[in-house]
Amino acid sequence: NASWARYVMVWRATPIWNNRMDDQKQARQQATLERLDRFSRFTDSSIRIPFTRFELGAEALIGLVPVVGDAAGLLLSGYVLLEAQRAGVSGATKRRMLRNMLVDFVGGLVPVVGDAFDAIFKANTRNTRLVRQDLLKQLGVEEPRRFPWGTLVGLSILFAVVTAAAMALFV
C-alpha cells in the first residue's frame, strides 16, 4: 500500500496532471465567461434601437417600473456576483462589482433620469468585464487596456453642460 500511495503522489505532482487540472479550470472559467456574456447581453444590450448604435436590455425595460423594477434589476445583477464567487474572483473585484451594482440601483431610483441612467450604465456588462479581467489575471494573461473614449466624451459633455448652466445663471 505504501508504494501505491507514493505512486499516486508522484503521479499528481507530474506536469501532465497539473496541466489537466489547469485545462479543467480554464474550461470552467471559459464556460462561466460565456454564461456571463450571454446574461449581460440579455440584460444590458439585447434590443437595438433602430437607426442608432444604442442598445437597451431587459434590465432597462424592467427598471421602468418605479422602485420594484430597480430592485428586480439589482437581483438580476446579483447573478453576475454569484458566478464571480463560484469562479473564485478576488475580493477586490467583488467589491468593485458591488459598487457598480449599487450605483446602478441608486441611479435608477431617480425619476425619469434614472431610467436613462439604467440604459446607459450597463452594470452587468461592466461586472462581466471585471470578472474576465480578474480570471485572466489569475491565469497570468493580461487583457490589453483600451483608451476610455466613452468616459472622456461623457465627462466632456457633462462639463460643457455644467459650464453652460453656470454661465446662464451668473451672466
Structure in a nutshell:
The protein is built from 8 helices and 2 strands. The protein is mostly helical. The N and C termini lie far apart (91 Å).
Task: Report on the architecture of this protein.
With 171 residues, this protein is mainly α. The chain has helices at 2-13, 15-45, 58-62, 68-87, 91-109, 113-121, 123-138, 149-170, and strands spanning 47-48, 55-56. A two-stranded antiparallel sheet has the order 1-2. Helix 4 packs parallel to helix 7.
Report the mean per-residue pLDDT as an integer: 83
| N-to-C span | 91 Å
**Uncertain segments of ≥5 residues (pLDDT<50)?**
1-18
Count the DSSP helices. Answer: 8
Main beta sheet: 2 strands, antiparallel
Indicate the proportion of strand residues: under 5%
| CA-based gyration radius | 22 Å
What's the structural blueprint in terms of helices and strands?
Blueprint: H1 2-13, H2 15-45, E1 47-48, E2 55-56, H3 58-62, H4 68-87, H5 91-109, H6 113-121, H7 123-138, H8 149-170
Antiparallel strand pairs: 1-2
Task: Name a few traits of the molecule.
2% strand, 78% helix, globular, two-stranded antiparallel ribbon, 2 strands
